Amino acid sequence: MSAARIIYGTAWKKERTAALVVSAVLNGFRAIDTACQPKHYREDLVGEALEELVNKHGINRKDLYVQTKYTPISGQDRSQPLPYNPEDPVYDQTRASVATSLKQLRVSYLDGCLLHSVLPTLNQTLDAWTALIELQDEGKVRKIGMSNVYDPRVLDHLQLESGHAPEVVQNRWYEGNGWDPDVLNWCKKHGAQYQ
Q1: 8: which strand partners?
Q2: Where is the NADP-dependent oxidoreductase domain positioned along the sequence (predicted)?
Q3: What is the CATH number of domain 8-194?
């Protein structure tokens, strides 16, 4: 499914995540955003909700847009169980994170998967991006993109080095960042969805 016009975000819902996701979908949401980041998200409970929606409420999986994010170690709480080995290279972390997400969400594919942020170096960001491209080629992810990227040169770099432009960009869009005009214009120019 293509992303809906409005996406239900699942951060900070804690133990209420499953009930709130079910309620959101039953009240009209058809897109759900989460992340493989235990300190802010409960992907396992999103998965529980998805299973309930399909099995008890007759919602078809294909009618839902399910999106998650790979969060680098800098965004993780090391006191929580990590979705990957932090000693592994970024490429392997990204693949392990997506495998964890697929398992926790109880789905066979993701409609969208984003890098949660720019990594400490452009090379690391490109390594994670390369993993997402391969996961897309394998059919495990349909759309790939980035979150929290406010410099369009990073997006250009990914496209130039990989030959694959981000299809989705998820940023904060508010007065405090001037409404993110540079990245918004980049998305318009490259046909990427801006969330």
Answers
A1: 32
A2: 12-173
A3: 3.20.20.100
**Per-residue CA distances from 82 to 23, 52, 101, 144, 146 (Å):** 28, 26, 12, 22, 20
Give the DSSP letter string of 27-82: TT--EEE--S-TTT--HHHHHHHHHHHHHHH---GGG-EEEEEE--GGGS-TTSPP
Place of tokens 């309930």: 52
**CB-based contact 11:41 (threshold 8 Å):** yes
Report if pTM > 0.70: yes
pLDDT tens string, the chain, 195 residues long: the values are 666 679 999 999 999 999 999 999 999 999 999 999 999 999 999 999 999 999 999 999 999 999 999 999 999 999 989 999 999 999 999 999 999 999 999 999 999 999 999 999 999 999 999 999 999 999 999 999 999 999 999 999 999 999 999 999 999 999 998 999 999 999 999 999 999
